Amino acid sequence: MANNSSNSSHFGGMEPYREDWSMPEKMTPQFKLGLSIYYSVLISIAVLFNVILIGTICSRRKLLTVTNILVINLAIGDLVTSILVVPFDIDLLLRGVFPFGKVMCAFSSMAFLLSLPSSVFCLLLLTMERFVSIVFPFHRIRYIRKRNTLIAIGIAWAYSLLFAIIPLFSKEEVVVIWMEQCHFLYSYDYLYMQLGLNFLLPVCIIVTMNLVLFRVASKHACDMKRRSLIGSNHRVRPSMIKLGANIKAAKTVLVLVFLFLVSWLTLILLTFLNSLCKICHPEYVTYLGNAINFSSIALNPVLYGLRNSEIRRQINIQKRNFLSLFCPSYAKVPASDRSMDSSVYTTHYDVNSRKSSFAVTFITESET
User: Fold this and answer.
1) 8 A C-beta contact, residue 10 and residue 267
2) Containing domain of residue 141, as a range?
3) How many beta carbons lie within 10 A of that of residue 245, not counting itself?
4) Which of 41, 167, 279, 313 has the fewest CB within 10 Å, making it most exposed?
5) What is the pTM (predicted TM-score) of this model?
6) Is 126 part of a structural domain of the chain?
7) Tell me, what CATH number does 151's domain have?
8) Is 340 domain-assigned?
9) In the structure, what pLDDT confidence band is assigned to residue 11 with cuts at 50, 70 and 90?
10) How far is 110 from 165, CA to CA, in rounded Å?
11) What is d(CA 69, CA 197) in angstroms, rounded to the nearest whole number?
12) In this predicted structure, which of 232-246, 276-290, 333-347 has the lowest mean pLDDT?
């Protein structure tokens, strides 16, 4: 065993049995308190917003699209990190020791090792779904189905869990409490496999697909602009409307991918530096890397919820329903939501306006 993960560094490179090993410079109490408060705010935002996002999508059947099922999967992964990983970092910052024993040491370390592959494979599935929808739209109905999506999600989680517990099958001691610190030992081979198979390879696929999506989206955007300049009398086909919604969703996935890369590349760079020199940078740098990495768990639900207009409208409806319990005036639906919400909008049409109501329903469904 050559490498280890502790609650302070996760992918760190400390060897607990070296007597000549010395800790990096100590962090100030003010820094520890400030970072603990920041972590606590992240947990609160992540739990609240991810629960709201999941509840909003599940509350309406029309929102349970393939894309939003994958978003729910991403939200579940963020909840796992916010509940099972970050609290241990807060406790370590405040106490300076790990008092929970070997079982919780192994549990918290494996929860973190689970977070990387689960997040990256969720983004991979999201990118693949958008890729097929835009580049191969006629094959989407055949391959992109809810049943296939749920199977793919199950396989991704099973693989991530299996990879996280691989170190436990080692013949050597894996979980060590040394100097009142939690150390989860694993080899450099495991570390390189984790970074190669569960980060570099899927990220290369994700980036390649997004480059193709960007090229296709730019081409179709120019085509739609050209059609609009020909004349306002030309009716926009539903397929073009659906394509525009798919491109918008693809842009959201691209932003999520960018956020993922920024958050994880920071931590992985520190991991690489730790493998080269274990005490070359101050301890607070590692914690700042963890803070950047953990920021995504709070930003993901905010980002997707704000960019998806149908989810925003449904959140507003749920908010008004809750506030109407205390103030009946909130029960009135604003005209902006009523005009776009298909369930309300269609009540203002008679039988002769089915085409119009269908068009509105089609748009709201395709946005997800």
Assistant:
1) yes
2) 29-228+239-330
3) 20
4) 41
5) 0.77
6) yes
7) 1.20.1070.10
8) no
9) low
10) 7
11) 24
12) 333-347
